Structure formats: C-alpha cells, structure tokens
Amino acid sequence: MRIDLHTHSAASDGTDAPAELVRNAAAAGLDVVALTDHDTVAGYEEARAAVPAGLTVVTGIELSCRLDGIPLHMLGYLFDPEEPELARERELVRDDRVPRAQAMVGKLRELGVPVTWERVAEIAGDGAVGRPHIASAMVELGVVETVTDAFTSEWIANDGRAYVDKHELNPFDAVRLIKNAGGVAVFAHPLAVKRGEVLPESAIAELADAGLDGLEADHMDHEPATRTRLHGMAADLGLLATGSSDYHGARKTCVLGEHTTDPDVYAEIAARASGAKPVTG
User: Which of 34, 74, 111, 136 has its CA at 20 to 30 Å from residue 1's CA atom?
Assistant: First the structure.
C-alpha cells in the first residue's frame, strides 16, 4: 500500500480542487490519501463525493499552533468535524487569516512590493487565505521566482520583514481538542528547521505525555539524518512515525506520494480514531 497522509486542496492553499486532488492521488498510484487543509474542513464533502474506485480518503486538518513564540502545525485525523469546541477554535483560527493576510500585504507595500489585497483574495478564491497565496502574487509580480523564494527573512518567513502573527492554538490544546473529537493527533514536520525555529525535544516529549499520537518523520523539509532522528524519537516516546508529501498542487514542487506512511502505522491511526471513518471508493 502507498499511503500519503498530508495534502492540501484549494479549500486552503493548494491548487487542486478537492475532487481533483483525490483523482490525482489515484492516478499517482496511492491507495490512501489524507486531506489535511489548513484550519478548515471545507473540502471534505467534495473530496468524499469524488473518491475514485480503489482509493481511500482520510479526512483531516492541519491546525495552526504556537508555543513559546514558535509556530508549528498539528495534524488531526478522523475526528468528528461537528464537535463543537474544535469547530469553534477552528473557525477562530480561520477567521483571523483575512486580517492577517491584509496586514502582510500592507507591510509588503511599505517595502515597495506593489501587491494588492484584491489580487491575493482572487488567488485564494474560496480557500482559507494564507501566505502561499501572497507568495503566488509576488511570483506574478516578478518579486520572487518561486513561492518558496518568498518564504525567507527578507519577505514572509516566520522571521520575515512582512510577517504578521495570527490567532493560533496552543499545541497542547490542539492535541486535546483533536482527541476529544475522537481523532488522532500527529505533529507535522516537527524538525523542519528550514522553516524557522522548532520546538526542543523536551517539549515534544511533553506533548507525547499529553496524548500526542505521532510525529511526521518522513517529509520533504527533513533531511535524511533528521528523518532517522525522528523515527528514533518516536520509538523512544511510544509515538507513531508517519510520512507524507505535504502536497499543494502546483504551488509547491513536491509530488503526491513523495513520502509515505507504513501500512501498519496507518492501520493503527484508523484503529485509534472514533470520530470518523475513512471513505473508500
């Protein structure tokens, strides 16, 4: 089995519509794909309705979090999307994305970049607006060559000149909310140092004690030695180790199935979850 547990559709900052994403996943030879849009479940219905024969779709989310000033992301799988507390927190994070993006556009304009909010909103469409949409507008203007090039300290990285904070969950709260909704919580790309500062291992151990289920070890932003380190850390802490592409369609260079999750790990995730069930076409 080929299992990719981290992808994004146009419901957040990917370029594939949810239905297109699941069709592309099947065409890429995947057996299981998880839809984990940023802070939203808006793509669920379309993705489930379009599942091709032979493909299993896992519904999920990638929640924006922050601890001690360090931003991070928490993946949630197979939780009840109607659970009130998680739904409320999810909407708080999502609703703050628009004023945050508008403030970042303002900062870029102060830096001489003629980006407009109207164009960023047009690129985002109905998706949850985020930095990749701003980066895409910068690419169109020729300010940077690729979306990735915008994520530097010069522009919109976490320490960038045009960066603006948004409402984010404490990761301990994120784990609690996901678990209380019957889901499984996995720390996304926990040692992706190219993105900025990362949590110390002591904090990851505390998250494990608080109910964290797993670490996303195999990811494009982890070097081979880091992946090995994370697999060892997961084993030491009694956590699952997952792998995934973090696919965003044409917005990033990664491809579906670039990294995958062991079938036994996926089976354990499905067994632990009580909020929702995978959907097979």
Answer: 74
